[in-house]
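sry for the spam today, last one i promise. struct tokens for design, 358 residues
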């Protein structure tokens, strides 16, 4: 259970209207100020709670700290002089951090921290690492890839960076990185595109190449994982899911799909059957990728019907090849039903279908 923020009026990590709010990073006050009584007293002076004594579990959320106090990336210098920069999964605070932003309190309680002046060396390092335009990428690629196994090709609007690998029969492109003229970056492993959300730890949500250190981190990461078969399997599964989605769009142009009955009204029974089959394959592959499966309404309806008709057959299908809800989960969903042999399951199944969509 996530800890809640101690600031008056802040609802971070609280339950709102029967549902949980998005998780917000928090920091335990006594842990952050451990061994520094002056820092603890400074925090308590800024937190708007009179005569309050924090406990060992008292926490304050990240919303109350200025951006200059929040560390979202870690950097390290390699032996060859290059810098590795990796996004942190959990942000941390600088040593001189203190809470200063309290939006749900009177404005006079919030203060603007002084902006720390960077040293000339820090400013030079930041400017040399920054990528401002596509021309910077094109001009700097030779020096960036010097003494590495990576190659590059530059065209008028793209830069292609690639790593070759060999097997017993041929030479092939193992990893390729494509940078467009608007600095958008995409990565391919043996011709299969890696999902952009898997690159957020480097680029954030923009998916743009904005620094040389980000490119160095990207190259280092994929060079070390180039020969790992498990990573390639993930890309192949994603490729199959994408192809299934494209096929469903193509078929839906000629097939009217009735989602409620999970049937297709079409002059061609084969097309309707193909649509249902591809939908099922796509959903099963998507479920493979979930740590905690989230079943669609159609799968829940189908599973309930099969389980109601023959629990042993359902358990056999679930244990042998299909990813289906646990029987206990189906019983909990259908606890209000009274099912006897010969009972029509249509209304019950439709009820579960609508309930699962909520």
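last one done:
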């Amino acid at each position: 259970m996530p800890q809640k923020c101690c600031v008056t009026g802040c609802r971070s990590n609280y339950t709102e209207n029967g549902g949980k709010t998005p998780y917000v990073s928090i920091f335990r006050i006594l842990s952050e100020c451990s061994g520094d009584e002056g820092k603890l007293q400074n925090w308590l002076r800024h937190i708007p709670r009179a005569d309050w004594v924090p406990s060992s579990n008292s926490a304050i959320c990240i919303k109350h700290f200025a951006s200059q106090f929040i560390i979202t990336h870690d950097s390290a210098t390699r032996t060859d002089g290059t810098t590795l920069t990796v996004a942190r999964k959990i942000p941390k605070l600088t040593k001189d951090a203190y809470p200063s932003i309290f939006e749900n309190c009177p404005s006079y309680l919030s203060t603007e921290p002084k902006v720390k002046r960077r040293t000339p060396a820090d400013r030079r390092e930041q400017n040399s690492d920054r990528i401002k335009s596509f021309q910077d990428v094109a001009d700097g690629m030779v020096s960036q890839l010097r003494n590495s196994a990576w190659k590059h090709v530059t065209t008028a609007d793209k830069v292609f960076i690639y790593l070759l690998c060999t097997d017993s029969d041929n030479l092939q492109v193992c990893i390729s990185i494509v940078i467009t003229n608007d600095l958008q970056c995409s990565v391919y492993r043996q011709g299969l595109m890696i999902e952009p959300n898997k690159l957020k730890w480097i680029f954030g949500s923009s998916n743009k190449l904005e620094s040389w250190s980000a490119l160095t981190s990207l190259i280092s990461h994929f060079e070390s994982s180039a020969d790992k078969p498990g990573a390639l399997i993930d890309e192949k599964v994603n490729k199959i899911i994408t192809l299934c989605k494209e096929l469903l769009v193509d078929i839906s142009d000629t097939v009217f799909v009735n989602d409620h009955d999970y049937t297709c009204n079409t002059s061609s029974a084969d097309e309707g059957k193909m649509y249902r089959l591809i939908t099922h394959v796509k959903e099963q592959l998507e479920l493979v990728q979930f740590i905690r499966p989230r079943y669609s309404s159609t799968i829940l309806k189908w599973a309930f019907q099969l389980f109601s008709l023959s629990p042993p057959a359902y358990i056999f299908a679930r244990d042998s090849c299909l990813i289906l809800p646990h029987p206990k989960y189906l019983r909990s969903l259908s606890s209000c039903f009274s099912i006897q042999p010969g009972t029509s399951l249509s209304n019950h199944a439709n009820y579960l279908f609508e309930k699962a969509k909520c």
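The first strand starts at residue 15 and ends at 16. ok im logging off now
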